[in-house]
Queue: 2 jobs
Job 1
Amino acid sequence: MNNASTDQIVAALSRPAPGDARSLTRRRFLQAAAATSAIGLAPGWLVDEVAAATAAGSVTDGVLVVITMAGGNDSLNMVIPVTDPAYAKRGGGLAIAAAAALPMDADRRFHPALPTVKSLWDAGEVAVIEGVGHPTPDLSHFTSMARIMQGTASGGIPTSGWLGRAGDELGAGTNPFASVTFGSSVPLLMQGRSSQAIAVPARPDRLLRPDADPVAARQYRAVAQMGVGGTGLGALGEELAVSGAQALRIAGSLSSAYLGVTPEGRVAQPLTLAARIVNAGLGVRVIHVLYGDFDHHAHQAGEHAARLAELDAGLAHFFATVAPAHRDRVMVLTTSEFGRRIRANNSSGTDHGAASTWLAIGPGVKGGRYGELSALSNPDASGNLRTTVDYRSVYDTVLTRWLGLDAGQIIGRSYGDLGFLDRPRTPPPPPTIDVTSERARISRLYLAYFGRLADFAGLQFWMGQRSQGRSLAAISAAFASSEEFVRRYGALDDRSFVLLVYRNVLRRSPDGAGLEFWTRTLREGTSRGQVMIGFSESAEFVSATAAQLREGDGQSPVARLYRAYFLREPDAEGLRYWLDSGQPLDRISAAFAAAPEFRQRYGAVSDEAFVDLVYGNVMKRPPDPEGRAYWTRRLSTGMTRGQLMLEFSESQEFRDRTAR
Amino acid sequence: MAVLPQTSLPRETSRLDAAHLARRIGFGAMPAEVDAMVGRPWVDLVDGALDTSRAPRATLGVPNLDPSRDWWDRYVDMVHFWLERCRTSPVPIVEKMVLFWHGHLCSSLEKVEDHRAMFEQNQLFRVHGLGPVETLFQTVSVQTAMLRYLDNDVNVVGSPNENFARELMELFVVGVGHYSEDDVRAAARAWTGHLVDDKTNQYVFRADRHDHGDKTFMGITRNWDGPEIISHLVREPQAARFLAAKIWSFFAYPNPESTVVDALAAEFRASGMRIDALLRAMLLRPEFLSERARRSLVRTPIDYAVAAMRHTGLPCSEAHPEWWLDGMGQQPFYPPNVAGWRQNRYWISAPAMWAKSEYASYLRWQRIETTGNLADTRSLPVDQAVANALALFGIDQPSDTTVKALRQFVTEERAGSQWAEQAGLLYLTPLTPEFQLA
């Protein structure tokens, strides 16, 4: 029996992407250009509003990566029901011995080729959703693939997919990068009603390189030139004329993500590129990776293991490549048009099945098992697993809980929440700082020893020491030998030292037992440095200084960078992340300069316009001519925008303006 | 019989009109072809274009589709067979109509899984694509490709499958709003028993699987059989309007005025629903020569790929359009769904542009290889070098912007590497908006 390949099925369910072109008609292209130059000329105080209107979405917006395991994945061998006695009787050499599989829970084990999935499961980041399928299964690839891609309640001619329609709502009509699919065409899944995903190459060497050699550069420049100035060819002619420039621009935006090598592997490559596209801050929200072929009618065991190993490696690369700042934003969903027959066929393979197991993976996922695997001894009339979870309820869950959309609008009605995203996606922004962090410990030593908050550089230095393995006690000992400390406490005997420490650190007189305890401890040979840790880490001091530390964070240079870069107060989580990172300010500033929030605001403008904007936004005044000339010259002679922002944010003028 | 306003049609066809006609009824106006058309009466050109007696025999050079051959090799041979005919046929309207029908009476190799069946359908469009529409519809409905694609091969008494019956009315003949759900059910029952024989892989009528009961279709109750459904539908006035509007949209511009549709439908019906008569009526409408018609179509990728081959003189075996058509968005024999390809904006996208760019780049190196060397244009004035490139690709009226872009390229190239001027022009000209428009 001839079986259509996965490629053929998906090709049949694919078409090119007009969405990006539609959003960039010539008129809008020109409007955007005009708006950009207008910002450059506007007085500074007008700029905040304009810039705010063009800023990208917040970085907390969830990103969904859907992997289509095309061809029909044998999920019984992906997540193995080791305690179902019928499993071992699959035949065809398919059953995997429990001892060879990777431990998961009492009743399930992972395929041996899935160590990454297993470790993510152990971290509580994998939801295993069993029994996913259509209420009335159809064994045809075409019909089943069309169904899971279409994702509607009503069926009908498939003209759009559930993720494409999500893309409509997520701004794919205005930002071509909101919805991204890998390959040369856009599968049904990624076609929306009013927009479509942009199809990007799955290999780094397949991207048009606008910055290639000089000859190619001249040719690309001519392509871009075709869209400059009207053509008189009518609306379609105008769109075609700018589409070349647009294609080059999109390729240019992607070029950083496509630079450098990627791991080999049909799924590792696109997943690595997907992670880089997330990191690049282009505003991506939904990503599709097609991976197959899982249609193993013959000699399945080895083939399937190889497919799963590639998938596992791809997931490892994906989560390793996603930058820490974005890690909490990403989740991966694996799907397949159907599972496979429980019993093997006569060719050591399996025929088309019905229900299958899908995986949801990521830090926002509440790990565990969901749905229900029907007993292998109780198959449907075709010998397949029964559907216990409507695939659309998986969509409902991720649309509602991860992408924040109205699922009813996208899939036609509500199918309920499966609960695998019940883990709060972003921890409630804590107004307090993490008092147990190394930074807090060192900060409290400063407060205890010197009665003041640490300066940023000093704190960074000691955090560096700490991360290189130096103990808190050793740091305290260094503080104890400091001139400042010796001058204050050096001449005192142990008892007077304890008394004074009580007064200076806890701001009270000692109770009798406390005084006795610490004096005896010192007499028995404990160093003053150790005792100082006893005070700085006491529950009393930790609680008493929390507000002060929080205040200190708000006055830190990193907080100033937030105000200068993003024109807002830092969010607690982000501020804490950067302060805890121990990175030097220039590195943090460089990271901020690469943030989507910043690039959306300033990315397209010239250096001179950038200087004008920064004066307006940061200093709230137009630039003086000398200032403008000076900074523009610096930028033209190698200073990065990140370095300039740091200079502005650390300037006395800015400190004074933002001092509270 | 409708009176055609022929007085407003050119007695001496201009170069512009001739090129427009050649692009629409074929795959690109070669300068020599346009030269031969200029000055002749428009009506003569139209009648010449529709004279299929000069078309090569359909059986000439058919591909070897033996199932023992590699799937992809068979596929490429099918694509090359068709696109070579597009490229070389002296009556290209025949192949243009094959393209139209492929996107209207859709079947896909993906689901049909049978090269021979898909090729049989392609040949049907070639042989009957310009004749009486009923012959075409009756035949396509009982070929393996369509029977499999729309599930008529599993449509049996007691378990009717409505897929074909529904699309026949919704997408093929009359359009949404001109039939009821009861009509769909009745038509599905009428088509039961029209199956594919598992052994021969050919159409077979199995009386024992056919529903011989009475069905009420379009208000008439009797023992309908499938083909009678088609005979009835194509005689509905709506069928003439539906097809006239779709064919006009494909050749002239989308969303035609109802006056145009009515006039075409009248001619169409008067001819006994012959497609060539509809095409003739269409080409003789003054609206076909209007500014709107000239600007309202983007070349489909297949049209684009063939035109680029024609203008560079490269056959499929050297141009390999099959490598890029999927990226451009139109893979032959794989329409995206039963509704076929959309048009115009649907073809404009960054990924499609990337694919066109790669295709154009490949073609220019292939051409430079076949012509032996880089034809040196550096001795020519810049304007002349640009004009030659535009003429090669049949662009008679380039926009100032396009000319400026190409001119600037040549000037920069002469100051730069100096060796890539011809290569650059061969790459850039097919990427101009003028060439991408139909």
Job 2
Amino acid sequence: MVLIPDVIFYMLIFFTVYVQVFFFVTLLENRKKIVVRSGKIELDHYPAVTIVVPSFNEEKTVYKTIRSLLNLDYPKDKVKIFLVDDGSTDGTWNIMKHFEKYPNIKIFHKENGGKYTALNLGLEHMETDFFGGLDADSIAHPESLIRIMSCFEKDPSIMAVAPSVTVDNPRNFIQNAQRAEYHMGVYLKKMLGFLGAINVTPGPLTIFRKRVFDNLGPYRHGHNTEDMEIAYRMQKNRYKIEHCHDAYVYTNIPKTIEKLYKQRLRWIYGFINNTIDYRSILFRKKYGNFSIFTLPMGIISIFSVSYLFGRIIYNLGDFLYSKILVLNTIGFHFTTKIFHFDTFFLNAQAFIFLVILIYFLIIFSMIFGRKMAEGKWSFSFNMLYFFPVFSIIAPFWLLKAVYNTLLRKKPTWR
Amino acid sequence: MNTIDWKKYLIVFLITTGLFLIASYLSNYFGNQKIDQLKSIQDKIAINILSSETQFALLSESSCKNVSGSVLSAELDELGSKLEWGQKNLGATDEVSYLKKYYSLLQIKDYLLMKKISERCKVKSAFILYFYTTAENCSECEKESLVLSSLRDKYPELRVYSFDYSIDLSAVKALLQIYKIKDTELPALVLDDELLTGFHSIEELEFRVKESFKLQEIKPEEIKK
């Protein structure tokens, strides 16, 4: 007898395998295009770029962020740095004032209005043809900007270039799990880049052509994910977004589960609500892979995680119930039988093999992402942390984001 | 830009389908191996029972020393638990239900033989025939199974034979007729030819099993008188 839950289960596994294979095939198609440049490069022209550092209570990290911008391997007079203090209540403003003396740095202080307002302030004062932000918790690699600008030089139709965001110095297992995830993220972003289907232009050092904002307007609130909203808007207007895999930006990641939960809740909430706002471009051929692949993939993954979570809870409940039944019926007793392992009892249902395949493909994507981000092929056991951390906690922020959407509750930034 | 490569979507679909076919092939392959394993255990048990029966017939009453029946119990238990697992996880295929019939038959044969041996050779033992159902949700049956397997762990001389009420096997139907068991009264137990229906707690059954052992201990003395 075929049960409906099993049919749903296998359909979700089918989609998951499909997505992973899709990425893998994309990689095989484009493998020759992935070259990691290790040395310095030169451009024909060095167009001026404005980089805004929007900060709200970032006194611990903003100094290093600004330093990394000053150390960029790019003509100093071509990098205009705007430091925007978005109404911080800590020492952020004092740190910014130290940098006032630099000729290419301008500092701004405004009332707190959210990250997108800080970015928009930068847009208002911009006089260059290129614009980017750098979150005040991130550090740019010295070669990052020039590598990004080389992408613009190669292809004038490119409207924005996203860097590879990775993690520099993970301290605990939560951060190690995230690092593995960021490596996977580099791989996924590269593949989405090949597909022309990038859905986030990350806050850390995505560079845009000025025309993007001239034509499409400034940043919007975007449900606290303004870097996702602008990418959606660009996709809707069929603006090309590219990923420059060897432009590295190191970002600070949450140290605790609680902070990770808040961050991800905001991201997923942003995904759900931006997707709802831009639902008109779903499954429309003219919006390309973004509309046919990226968005449906995100929606299905939310369903999958919720469904699998329900299934796990059900199985756990079933298991506990059977244990309680044993306890109630025959009391507490130690069996005298010695447990011996018998391969007969190993589950050999079809989904087991598929789940193993999915795990392998995910680990492969982490290893490949790491290769792009750090230039070496290596497997680390830290990658395995990803599975317990994310499979246990992810359902909670996911379901909470769905719940918040239904009740129209907006999650806070931190 | 923004062109969709439909061919790629199709190719990926075919690859994914191929992977699913491979997975289900592997699953079938291992499933069949498990069924083969079950078959070979059953064949072994069948030979053992047949051999014990023959040995018993040949030696008749002359000697009880050479009759070995107790080895079978553990094997039958193992087969039982594997069959139960197989029914849950391999799906109720024809092969599994065929194996289950065979298993029931082996249990009856073992029961008859062990009863004879214990009577004639005065082996300390107790027998429980246990009838349950899988046709409907029977929570009492689940509980009773737990009680019985716990008791069996505690008393190796206790032999429990379990039968699915709804099994389509004439030998089991004969048992049902002999003890007048109805499907409304499941779970049902037969201990020392006495029919017990509904759930019976571990304390109660333990008491009855001990009584059954005692009866056997008295018997030899009575015979002497």
